[in-house]
Hints:
The structure holds two protein chains of two kinds.
Chain A: E1 6-7, E2 27-38, E3 47-52, E4 55-60, E5 65-69, E6 73-79, E7 89-94, E8 110-111, E9 114-115, E10 122-127, H1 133-145, H2 150-154
Antiparallel strand pairs in A: 1-5, 2-3, 2-10, 3-4, 4-5, 6-7, 7-10, 8-9
Chain B: H1 2-9, E1 14-19, E2 24-32, E3 38-45, E4 57-62, E5 67-71, H2 79-90
Amino acid sequence: MVLGLYTFADIAADGAPRLEAADGEELVRVDRAAELALGPRALKAPGTLFLTTRRVIWVSDGGEGYAVDFVAVSLHAVSRDPEAYPYPCIYTQIETEASSGEESDVSDSETNGELELSKVTEMRIIPSDPGQLDELFEAFCNCAELNPDPSAESDEEPGWVHGDEGYEDMTDGSDTEFSDVNPIGQTGEQDITHAVIKLQINDQRFEDAEIDEESHINGN
Amino acid sequence: MLFFSYFKELVGKEVTVELKNDLAIRGTLHSVDQYLNIKLENTCVVDQDKYPHMLSVRNCFIRGSVVRYVLLPQDGVDIDILHDATRREARGG
């Protein structure tokens, strides 16, 4: 799992990126004339944005390319307030090798004025047509949903599956947000008494008290 | 599946999501998926001075794997139901 931004140079003669087709990577969306801004700076302008099923790739018109895998995109959002950034854009935060383990200042992606790609934690994509922002946001959402953490997938192993609760729908990619999972508090047909563990206490203090004939409460 | 089910019940309520990078974002829970990816609307950043770039953001998508906490509204939590549900989940029942 690769975190952080990296340079991308595998570009075909027609300007399109060469993808890992053997791994099933496919192109999802292309936005021409999109600018990229890494960290606090605006980068080269303009270029072409390619969204694939695995990652975000941006290639400048001059052939300079950058990419980040969706597993490393912590969040993305539409940013429209000119006070935060002069142009409407998709704002993203990137998880880097450095930030994944420790505290780090988001603004230290530059050293001596040089941009350190592996430390960039914020990236903005500025499409030439701001009207495309909502679609672009949705495309980011769709691609992000295609890239769960590898460790998250292992949680779906049989040990955690609850057979008859209709979880088969979960793998249907078209509607991941609504499924037949029982809402909290409703067990459906399930009888939960079998799941209650009987408490075994072998301590004499919990034995019934001996009844002493001579000490009845109301006895004489 | 417990938390997915639980968060679905919270859609429409206001929550605060705290990320592993310490950023905290308050917003209305729009939707959640099986990986606990979260979409929030009407967002505002809790500590605005620390993260000024997030100020203009109104809706966002947060990757489930970077969430540290989801802070819940007081009236969004039925302790008894949650207690029972977590007990059942832990016993695999």
